[in-house]
Amino acid sequence: MLVLKILWGMSAFIIFWAMMGYPASLVVLKKLIRRQNKKDESYEPTVTIMVVAHNEEKVIGEKLANLLNTDYPKDKLSFLIASDYSTDKTDEIVETFIMDNPDRDIRIHKSVNHYGKTNAQNEAQALCNTEILIMTDANAMFEPNAVKELVSYFTDPSIAYVSGQLRYMNTDGSNTANSEGFYWKLDLLCRSIESRIQTITAGNGAIYAVRNADYVVIPPIECHDSSFPVLYALKKKRAVYNPDAVAYEKAGEVNEDEFKRKVRMNRIILRGILPDIRILNVFSYRWFSYFYLGHRTCRYLLWLMHLLVFVLNIPLAFFCGVFWKVTLALQTMFYLFAVIGWLTKSNNTIIRFITYYCMTIIAQWKGVINIVTGKSKPVWEKAESTR
Fold this sequence. Notes:
single chain, 387 residues, alpha/beta, Spore Coat Polysaccharide Biosynthesis Protein SpsA, Chain A, 8-stranded mixed beta sheet, 51% helix, globular
């Protein structure tokens, strides 16, 4: 039974550290290590804004109009729409927009097959010759100064990647969106501190920038959000977060949409646990090793840790006293609340967050199953409630 107790304790600690311990440790580090990334708002390199779209006829017109309001020198700003084999009116809307704005540098690249966002980015990047490449989604709307803010960090030669701040517009509109908004604020807090101390562990697909010379072609199944910050960190370059570069987007308004999005995010979860053994070399990669293991590895292990904590608790509850009976009862009640929340769509704050949290764990399990069964793929259906 001692072995079971040790395994249970380790699993419980990883859950605690992923959700509470690691964020708390960053708050302490913020007080001990006072650093700031320096901006140069006078820096104006040539920029291409790439919008990746697959069947985005509902939002692509609004997106293009939004980008034309960008506060940046027109002669240094280009737009490239990477259409991932769109079969609706997306391409037609873009081409009409190009004709209606002949004074702006707007192009469209059409992929000949539907291979997903990353493939479309890889193809379109080959057409770019600007210094900076900014990438964004069709449903993410920029603040006018977002481009200036993103490029302002690139005067530091150690910085290869800058992620902006995504704000959800509809967190008051539904329980699901509200829960995602709360989780996202906690994650942004972690990124803000990581960025100041050394480097972030993941980006944000709605608004980010890279030096065009540092762009890395990655397999279509992977995504820039999770791959680029790690690749750059291993090259001793930095990926940072600029909260002043703001984009707005809708969070999923129903559990089903948000679940699909979470499953997509976990399509390479097994590789994400430890994408490169070098991350363990804390002497070489310093704070990044701590950040990745605490922020990513522990979180990517939650699906397994929750299973172990529950299954191991069963024999311990039968043979090892009151404490283990109480922990099993609490876990059972926790999951029961999640089921009730899912079925009733309860407005109770506690039940709502428990339901959302358990949904993210199940999405991790679905991601693992898809990987093992060969069903994980680089393409997906977008969540309609985010459009």
